[in-house]
Write a structure and sequence with these properties.
Elements: H1 9-36, E1 40-42, E2 49-51, H2 52-68, E3 73-76, E4 80-82, E5 89-97, H3 99-104, E6 110-117, E7 120-127, E8 134-138, E9 143-145, E10 148-149, E11 162-165, H4 171-184, E12 190-192, H5 197-206, E13 211-214, H6 219-231, E14 235-237, E15 249-252, H7 257-267, H8 269-283
Parallel strand pairs: 3-5, 11-12, 11-13
Antiparallel strand pairs: 1-2, 3-4, 5-6, 6-7, 7-8, 8-9, 9-10, 13-15, 14-15
Helix pairs in contact: 1-2, 4-8, 5-6
């Protein structure tokens, strides 16, 4: 990346360093509060849970961003968006991605922090506080797990591919997702449902899974992970002629992606996600 094609690399590097530092600190807070005990409530449905640790983590991140980067906008899963001034920087924060896993004690949850300049994600970090895995990237600078550079998934035929996905909180839509996955299972090698979109995208970047799809998602679910995956060389699509985004994200090795995207298109995965997203927005 050069200065004429996007934000200066020095700016993206600064934002990446902040994201890594704050995600790691928030991870320490999350682990400590889990050991101390926590309260649980629900949001959009009985399966859409939130804990006081989610809220405390987001409050910590917002306070630190206000201290380190006054004037930046912040979008967080739990408390919405706060507009910035004239910095042009917007942070997208998920204080715990994989709250159900956190609740159950499954070690597959993460703090996800992305930084955007004029709507373009330029830096991000996804940190798993249990394993200590810290994935990070900046635009044009590659994707990393700690100090190790990531090169994306292996290139295998669809019939051999291990596919990661996730399911929504709405029961009717989840049943529709199950129908699509049921038909897809006859065309792929196997399926993984790990419970964190951010970590799924990072697993793809690391080559721990071969392909990934899910939607709709909150921007906080995928903003950092999508940058990490693309910086590792992954191809992405939102299907139905759309780019990857909140309605739908599909991703994989450039060699395997076209066949995978075509299969998802044929099964109506993108259309189903977009239809549900529209219905959900209309109900708000």
């Amino acid at each position: 990346m050069n200065e004429s094609s996007g934000p200066a690399p020095i700016m993206a590097e600064e934002l990446r360093r902040i994201a890594v530092r704050l995600a790691t600190k928030a991870g320490e807070l999350v682990l400590a509060q889990r050991r101390a005990g926590f309260a649980v409530t629900t949001k959009s449905s009985a399966t859409d849970v939130v804990t006081d640790v989610d809220r405390n983590s987001e409050q910590f991140l917002r306070a630190e961003l206000a201290r380190l980067r006054p004037g930046d906008a912040v979008l967080g899963e739990e408390t919405g968006e706060v507009s910035g001034t004239d910095t042009g920087v917007r942070w997208v924060v998920d204080p715990i991605d994989g709250t159900v896993n956190f609740l159950l004690g499954l070690p597959q949850y993460a703090i996800s922090i992305a930084a955007q300049i004029e709507g373009r994600t330029v830096a991000g970090c996804v940190h798993n506080p249990v394993s200590g895995d810290t994935f990070h990237a900046q635009l044009g600078g590659g994707a990393w797990l700690g100090h190790d550079r990531l090169s994306g998934p292996r290139s295998v035929p669809l019939a051999q591919a291990v596919v990661a996905t996730g399911f929504g909180y709405d029961a009717d839509y989840r049943a529709r997702q199950g129908e699509i996955v049921g038909r897809l299972l006859g065309e792929i090698g196997n399926l993984r449902r790990l419970g964190s979109a951010a970590l799924d995208l990072c697993a793809l970047a690391a080559g721990w899974v071969d392909l990934y799809f899910e939607g709709p998602l909150g921007e906080w679910d995928f903003a950092a992970g999508l940058l990490i995956a693309t910086e590792a060389g992954v191809s992405t699509s939102g299907l139905d002629g759309h780019p990857a985004g909140a309605d739908f994200v599909a991703a994989g090795h450039p060699d395997a992606a076209p066949e995978f995207f075509a299969a998802l298109q044929r099964l109506g995965a993108g259309t189903a996600a977009r239809t549900f997203a529209g219905q959900r927005s209309g109900a708000l």
